[in-house]
UniProtKB/TrEMBL annotation:
Pfam families on file: Aminotran_1_2
Any single GO BP term: L-histidine biosynthetic process
Transmembrane spans: none
Oligomeric and partner information: Homodimer.
Residues found modified as N6-(pyridoxal phosphate)lysine: K209
Catalytic activity: L-histidinol phosphate + 2-oxoglutarate = 3-(imidazol-4-yl)-2-oxopropyl phosphate + L-glutamate
Keyword Amino-acid biosynthesis in record: yes
Protein family per UniProt: Belongs to the class-II pyridoxal-phosphate-dependent aminotransferase family. Histidinol-phosphate aminotransferase subfamily.
Domain Aminotransferase class I/classII large: from-to ranges: 24-341
Protein name: Histidinol-phosphate aminotransferase
Pathway: Amino-acid biosynthesis; L-histidine biosynthesis; L-histidine from 5-phospho-alpha-D-ribose 1-diphosphate: step 7/9
Length: 346
């Protein structure tokens, strides 16, 4: 065996959601968008394939994207850091802020990747349980080099109010609070408005969910431009390629299409949240594009397995004592199918 660092050998490694090689599968397990990206994305990618764009390196900082995001989100373009998915952004942040032997903090249950990032860095990882109603505890551990807070959270889909986010940021300062807003486009509010007055806040976003670009891999952070200047030193020079930059820019520029997709998803989310309780599920009110569903009467793993046998794939989760199904909001047709299979099983 080659001398791989012991912290890598000892770690389990992050395992992404299942991908079944079956075109008939109704895939509701990784919170992808069930609708295609904007038609403008396809035009932009086709345009990027012409001339000698592929022969040349992409813009290292993604300036065209940064200007577009700055305009649409009303933030300083110099405060935007581009990433190969928001997972890349989370990696860059961990590398930049956490020394070996340092401390990474996150609430639990939440996004499992944070633990892997800490382990790769050779850092300690400490979780803080959410309260029973998915809020932050009053006390937060001291000494963290970075705190991750997904908002809305996964798997619960719940949100922590901005006043609480601000309180947590003050509690962990001067270390950064990374507000992981992968699902914020499905919520009513988001943390961008805090950026001016909360200097240690870093907001991360993805185009994988609300912009239907999980396959293209594009995410970004918004933070103080002075912080972004430092983070640029950590990222790969060309972490986003010509095609993904073209796609991402076109996607954020088509806000009419974005609003249409969002409205459809929120309508289906409301329908699903209304119908699942009649089938015996306890559904946590969600501000994301998925629903966290539990049952008091029986374990849900057999349900997940039976759904999978019937070609409906949802996410079964059992960690930190929570046993439940995380179900992505699909199209209306996919939702009909899910509900029909559940009725038939139950
Ligand atoms: N944060 C959270 C909370 C997520 O659920 C995900 C999706 N797995 C991500 C970040 C990363 O998304 P991506 O890398 O596709 O941008």
């Amino acid at each position: 065996m080659l001398p791989i660092r012991s912290n890598i050998r000892d770690m389990a490694g992050y395992v992404p959601g299942e991908q079944l090689n079956d075109p008939d599968i109704v895939k509701l397990n990784t919170n992808e968008c069930p609708y295609p990206p904007s038609p403008r994305v396809f035009e932009a990618v086709r345009a990027a394939l012409t001339g000698d764009r592929l022969r040349k390196y992409p813009q290292p900082l993604g300036d065209t994207f940064r200007r577009a995001a700055g305009r649409v989100l009303n933030v300083d373009p110099d405060g935007v850091l581009i990433g190969n998915g928001s997972d890349d952004i989370l990696t860059i942040l961990t590398r930049a802020f956490v020394p070996e032997g340092g401390l990474v903090l996150a609430p639990t249950p939440s996004y499992i990747l944070y633990k892997s990032l800490a382990e790769i860095q050779g850092a300690r990882f400490e979780t803080v349980p959410f309260t029973a109603d998915w809020q932050l505890p009053t006390a937060w551990p001291a000494g963290g080099h970075i705190t991750f807070l997904p908002n809305p959270n996964s798997p619960s889909g719940t949100v922590v109010p901005l006043a609480e986010v601000e309180r947590l940021a003050a509690a962990v300062a001067p270390a950064p609070l990374v507000l992981d807003e992968a699902y914020a486009d499905f919520a009513d509010d988001n943390g961008l408005s805090l950026l001016g007055r909360v200097p240690n806040l870093v907001v991360t976003r993805t185009l994988s969910k609300s912009y239907a670009l999980a396959g293209i891999r594009f995410g970004f952070a918004v933070a103080d431009p002075a912080v972004v200047r430092e983070l640029v030193k950590v990222k790969d020079s060309y972490n986003c390629d010509v095609l993904s930059l073209a796609a991402a820019t076109a996607a954020v520029e088509d806000q009419d299409y974005f609003r249409e997709t969002r409205a459809k998803l929120l309508a289906t989310r409301a329908r699903l949240a209304a119908e699942l309780p009649a089938l015996g599920f306890d559904v946590t009110p969600s501000r994301a594009n998925f629903l966290w569903c539990r049952r008091a009467d029986r374990p849900v793993k057999p349900l997940y397995e039976e759904l999978k046998r019937r070609k409906v794939l949802v996410r079964y989760m059992n960690y930190a004592g929570y046993d439940g199904l995380r179900i992505t909001v699909g199209t209306e047709v996919e939702t009909d199918r899910l509900l029909a299979e559940l009725r038939s099983i139950l």
